[in-house]
Amino acid sequence: MYPIKFDPILKSTIWGGDKIIPFKNIDIKQEQVGESWEISDVQGDESVVSEGEYKGKRLSELVKEFKGKFVGKSNYERFGNTFPLLIKFIDANDDLSIQVHPDDKLAKERHNSMGKTEMWYVIDNGQGKAHLRSGLSKNITPEQYSQMIEDNTICDALADYAVKPGDVFFLPAGRIHSIGAGCFIAEIQQTSNITYRIYDFNRKDKNGNTRELHTELSKDAIDYSVQEDYRTSYTPIKNEPVELVQCSYFTTSVYDLTENMTMDYSELDSFVIFICMEGGCTIKDNEGNTLPLHSGESVLFPATTKEVKVEVESNVKFLETYV
Question: Cα–Cα distance between 189 and 39 in angstroms, integer?
């Protein structure tokens, strides 16, 4: 098997901006694109291969056909025919709703779904104006939480961060969060579209209606613990992998390269995804397959891939993630 690219699934939203189309160098006119789903196995939003021998095939078809050779033996035993990760670019021209996602146990009981643990990597901060919310800033009870929703004061209990490019936030299921205006981020998450909307700033759509809130559902899903700092600390290093997040759902590192590099995946029992955020390169695998990769593109290497050579054009920055 060879490295695979997919057609992006573009999502127009009320809070979307104008960064995704030029970032991905897509020649279409579409306004307020809030999300580009790069690699998805969510029912109804399945990624389709964009080129090569498998062009036109859905991601789910590849998993079913190639099983462990595609996702890794242990991953296939764990997740079956469901591809376990959802990869997105998100452009927020306005604040997204404040929300929370259930963990695996609650999501299985309520929705027969995986839970939703995720992470964010900030690509752009809207000329220094961007912010986001992650986690509780003070101790509250579930009863106080419900009252703060009613009183429109829930934001007073949330940690709010001004962000800059390169900032990373890990969001385990249960952590309240909201992407703020000005954020342009890469998101890696479990394959789940279960979201409990907590607060939406009393916004109304074009018909004058507010969006549904899930106060009771979210009350049991929230992790009410408080941390001093919800940011992920790391030291950027050129021409070396820098691990950002390691959890049971994914391991993610960032590469900021000005020199060629070879990655050895011979001992890894998993697919690998590169999410390119800056610059460009040519990638070559151990079977001689060659593919260009530029900012705004993502590529999936099947579990049969043993080695990847990255030949840098001048510079390239990408996230590497696997399970």
Answer: 11
**CA–CA–CA angle 37, 40, 41 (5° rounding):** 155
pTM over 0.85: yes
pLDDT of residue 178: 97
* Whether 175 is catalytic: no
CA distances from 322 to 32, 85, 300 (A): 30, 9, 10
Q: Which residues contact 100 (CB under 8 A, 6 or more apart)?
A: 174, 175, 176, 177, 196, 198, 218, 221, 222
Mean pLDDT by 10 residues, the chain (323 residues): 96 92 87 93 96 96 98 98 98 96 96 96 93 97 95 96 98 98 97 95 84 93 97 97 98 98 98 98 96 97 98 97 98
| Residue 274: per-residue pLDDT | 98
Q: Report all structural domains of the chain as residue ranges with CATH numbers, in order of start.
A: 9-219 (2.60.120.10), 242-322 (2.60.120.10)
With vertex at residue 168, the alpha carbon angle to CA 292 and CA 213, rounded to the nearest 5 degrees, is 105
Q: How far apart are CA 322 and CA 251, in angstroms?
A: 6
Six-digit token string for 150: 């009613």
CB 288 within 8 A of CB 100: no
Among 117, 157, 152, which residue's Cα sits nearest to residue 133?
A: 157
Which of these is catalytic: 197, 203, 211, 231? 197
